[in-house]
Amino acid sequence: MRPDPTRGPKGKAAPAADRTALILHFENNDLLPELYGDHDRHLARIEQKLAVTIAPRGNRVAIAGDGDRMAAGEVLRALYQRLERGEPVTLGDVDGAIRLVAEGVDPSSDALRFRTRRKLIGPRSPTQARYMAALAKHELVFGLGPAGTGKTYLAVAAAVTLLLAGKVDRIVLTRPAVEAGERLGFLPGDMREKVDPYLRPLFDALEDMLPGEQMTQWMETGKIEVAPLAFMRGRTLAHSFIILDEAQNATPMQMKMFLTRLGEHSRMAVTGDPSQTDLPPGMVSGLADALEVMEDVEEVPVIRFGEADVVRHPMVARIVRAYEARERRRR
To answer: Measuring CA to CA, which residue among 130, 69, 71, 123 is closest to residue 98?
Structure first.
């Protein structure tokens, strides 16, 4: 795989029309169908986002046009390297590579990857890259932002990576059960069944990263523990990776109680969307309160995601953008 703006295949001079184009050569033809996507839809997305024209011919790709040809070349090289490592390339990966290259972040860097049993997980936006670096380095990290930005998914990925590496002994998942008023006794089943509806997003992330049998075994042996936030009082969690999801629905007292559960050799990730609290009107969110209290505390990074970091369906980004625009108008 060698970029050359003036040479064609096998070192021959490129046609005159290609002399202003960026030429890429990819050595493994078997990887090109997945690189290009069904009906070349990956190439079409790069063309749309970067205002270039991409012409594939065999294992040679010519990138022309008035847009950012070098960025388009970096995106294609990064995606090709994913395929060489045995990782799939989806349209979401294409969008992520475009975002990262635009901000000068190398999408193929191994430094920003979480390794789970089922996949390698890398960032799809510059903010995700900063978040992953913070999760890998710091004992307490706040991840804030709208739905679809990957803040919870990446926290689970960090936890699974450290558990597989033997750096923590267990993962503890917790979330405020606001809808049931923290009174879970009337729900049928054992504790796991009672809190399942509230922790389903965390389970979905775990299932995406671990084989089903291993996840079930770890749940049974306590390597993965599930507990509603109200039941965390009085505990000290050592050698653990603890994730508090939907933290905007915790009260200030619950948030203080949670943060002080941190034991030795443990990590905490607190995720939430400050704009979507389900607390009763007039009640202060524990997340907002904690951010104010922790403002001057060193070594506690607060990573804020925005509409540009939404990595779900493109419609989700448009929905988030519309709500944010209305909120700005109200202010």
So the answer is: 71
Among 120, 154, 330, 282, smallest CA distance to 107 is for 120
Q: Which residues of the chain have pLDDT under 70?
A: 1-19, 178-198, 312-314, 316-317, 331
Is the domain 112-330 a CATH 3.40.50.300 member? yes
By the 10 Å C-beta count (0-12 exposed, 13-18 middle, 19+ buried), 32 is classed as middle
- Cα–chain center distance at 134: 13
Which residues, other chains included, contact 156 with Cβ-Cβ below 8 Å and sequence gap of 6+? 171, 202, 205, 206, 209, 243
- CATH class of domain segment(s) 9-108: alpha beta
Who's near 180: CB < 8 A, 6+ residues apart?
Answer: 186, 187, 198
Residue 252, SS3 per DSSP: helix
pLDDT tens, residue by residue, 5-18 = 434 333 333 344 44
